[in-house]
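FOLDING PROBLEM:
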Amino acid sequence: MSEDVLHRVRRQTLNPTLQMTEEIYNETLIMIEDMCLLMANKVLSCLGMTAPNRHMHDALNYELQREQYDIEALAETVRTNVPHLNQQQRIAYDTLIEAANSESGGIYFLAAPGGTEKTFLISLLLARIR
């Protein structure tokens, strides 16, 4: 059952490399407990098994929903806004996208005065990467 949950989460998050986690095991325990409640009206702890953490389940669902994106809307955002980057923003954008595409990584710091559209640039980078 855990592998089924892992497969579902991989599809929902578009992350095929996601590995088994405590949250995945907990989700499986919740499914088992739900079946036990339906069939015998008993929670897992009454049957001598580990009880699931329902709070963790709610947090996992929130995280999954938060990480689901409208790919077409993000692509449209990139298409319409990249041409609006100024020369310095475009250099930073190209450098960071190249680092992400090549998987070379690194630490980058954007230093600029307020009002120079750093948030716009970061939002555009995230839209492209997502």
